[in-house]
UniProtKB/TrEMBL annotation:
Alphabetic keyword roster: Hydrolase, Magnesium, Metal-binding
Species for this entry: Jiella flava
One MF term in the entry's GO annotations: metal ion binding
Entries under Gene3D superfamilies matching the protein: 3.40.190.80, Fructose-1,6-Bisphosphatase, subunit A, domain 1
Signal peptide: none
The protein's name in its UniProt record: Histidinol phosphate phosphatase
CDD domains: Bacterial_IMPase_like_1 (cd01641)
Lineage: Bacteria, Pseudomonadati, Pseudomonadota, Alphaproteobacteria, Hyphomicrobiales
Positions that bind Mg(2+): 77, 92, 94-95, 216
Pfam family name, one: Inositol_P
SUPFAM superfamilies given in the database record: Carbohydrate phosphatase
Cofactor(s) listed: Mg(2+)
């Protein structure tokens, strides 16, 4: 495994990406072992569901990080923050727990490495399908093949995804989703992190989300950017640990600019 240092050479990103993949290799059989079984579901303080699969996966990944990179920080959905140096591993053991507990196969595991607050490595792993998008500075790969977003440049031609309309609970966010849905060529629901992989591979053009936490979106940034897309908050600002959870991902800079301009009246 690579040795952490404040100044990471470009050639080291693949080593960190390999380690992120190793974390997902640990997570995948655990997730599949619990998937579509009768397992208890607890409610967290925010009323979101959590299972033994979420907790077991994160505990295993944290132990691996602490063994290989003891100075690194960790930011996980289930067990919170471990302070460290400028490297922070961001973990979502089961992204799409509602999908997971209802037998829907497009849940995922998200792993990111942020350096000085910026996500540089991102992995979207989909255990049930065996797909894994790996984003590093400058490229995104799926099964070893470089991925590229679609060349859609205008809202009128865009294919829009969001995980669920249920999160758009305010008049502004619900209005934004309704208005954008009426403008684009097609709207679809569902998929959690999987829809960002679809965007990176050119199958959809826009993703609009609200209420996300850093463990939900940090891994998505390198995947989308490495494939040529753009992902920011609704104001067009880069995503980071202080972002408020409104996320827009677009296939091209032109489409992103069109979407940001469209969203201005809803912010």
């Amino acid at each position: 495994m690579p040795t952490a240092s404040p100044n990471i050479a470009a050639t080291d990103w693949n080593d960190f990406a390999d380690f992120a993949g190793t974390l997902c290799n640990k997570a995948r059989p655990i997730a599949l072992g619990y998937f579509r079984t009768a397992l208890p579901v607890d409610s967290k303080a925010d009323e979101s569901p959590v299972t033994i699969a979420d907790r077991t996966i994160e505990a295993e990944m944290r132990a691996m990080i602490e063994a290989h990179f003891p100075s690194h920080g960790i930011y996980g959905e289930e067990f919170g923050i471990k302070n460290g140096d400028e490297h922070i591993w961001v973990l979502d053991p089961i992204d799409g727990t509602k999908s997971f507990i209802t037998g829907f196969p497009l849940f995922g595991t998200l792993v990111s490495l942020a350096v000085d607050g910026a996500p540089r490595i991102g992995v979207i792993d989909i255990p049930a399908t065996g797909e894994r998008w790996i984003g590093t500075p400058g490229e995104t790969r799926l099964a070893g093949a470089k991925q590229r977003t679609n060349d859609c440049r205008a809202l009128d031609a865009a294919r829009l995804y969001t995980t669920s309309p249920d999160g758009f609970t305010t008049s502004n966010t619900a209005g934004a989703l309704a208005a954008m849905s009426a403008r684009v060529a097609m709207r679809r629901f569902g998929g959690d992190c999987y829809i960002y992989g679809l965007l990176a591979s050119g199958y959809c053009d826009l993703v609009l989300e609200v209420g996300l936490q850093p463990y939900d979106f940090m891994a998505l940034v390198p995947v989308i950017e490495g494939a040529g897309g753009v992902i920011t908050d609704w104001c067009g600002e880069p995503l980071g640990f202080e972002s408020q959870g409104r996320v827009i991902a677009a296939a091209t800079p032109d489409l992103h600019a069109d979407a940001i301009d469209f969203l201005r009246i809803w912010i």
